[in-house]
């Protein structure tokens, strides 16, 4: 008759049989360094992955549960109202197309019911450029160039006097916000139109270019 210890060893051998038919004793399994290392590594990876999955699941649930949107986009009194105020910018070269597209996108994202007009010189912009600008929502407004009052002006500024054409756009009686095509709009800024109403006593407001503001 087998002793209790021999019976226990025999039971363990039967339990630890593998597909190859070989028998490994429990001592070899427990005290083999490589086997123990693999077991610990796999355990860490498994439980670590499980923890990361749980954290991501909680974060995703909280994001879906309470999304944060700009409330003005869900205000029907605002979105469904045809605004008489407009945003303006200008583009005189195909080289700045990407900037104008990004500006137009950020304006529309935060001001879906405001119209956007883009000044340009007929013949200066390619057909493809004009097509892309219109797809973003820009309304193309051809203007005649205003030449600079003196010679020797830096090349990049020679077309900028054409911005003064906006003073002739009398159809926009409720206000215009002009933004250079290398700027972006990060939030709702239509409240600026309230600053240039007759009741405030102001008809014009401006801010300095950031580059020059930092130099002063």
Automatic annotation (TrEMBL):
Superkingdom per UniProt: Eukaryota
Segments crossing the lipid bilayer: 36-61
Entry keyword set: Membrane, Transmembrane, Transmembrane helix
PANTHER family reported for this sequence: GLYCOGENIN SUBFAMILY MEMBER
Listed name of the protein: 9236_t:CDS:1
């Amino acid at each position: 008759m087998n002793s209790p210890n021999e019976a226990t060893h025999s039971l363990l051998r039967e339990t630890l049989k593998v597909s190859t038919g070989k028998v490994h004793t429990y001592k070899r399994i427990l005290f083999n360094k490589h086997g123990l290392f693999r077991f610990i590594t796999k355990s860490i990876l498994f439980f670590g992955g499980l923890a990361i999955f749980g954290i991501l699941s909680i974060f995703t649930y909280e994001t879906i549960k309470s999304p944060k949107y700009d409330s003005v986009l869900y205000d029907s009194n605002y979105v469904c109202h045809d605004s008489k105020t407009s945003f303006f910018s200008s583009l005189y070269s195909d080289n700045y197309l990407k900037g104008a597209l990004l500006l137009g996108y950020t304006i529309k994202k935060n001001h879906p019911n405001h119209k956007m007009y883009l000044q340009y010189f007929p013949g200066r912009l390619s057909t493809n450029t004009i097509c892309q600008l219109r797809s973003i929502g820009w309304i193309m407004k051809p203007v005649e160039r205003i030449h600079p009052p003196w010679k020797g002006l830096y090349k990049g500024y020679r077309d900028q006097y054409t911005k003064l054409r906006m003073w002739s756009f009398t159809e926009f009686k409720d206000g215009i916000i002009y933004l250079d095509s290398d700027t972006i709009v990060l939030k709702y800024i239509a409240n600026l139109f309230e600053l240039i109403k007759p009741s405030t006593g102001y008809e014009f407001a401006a801010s300095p270019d950031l580059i020059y503001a930092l130099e002063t």
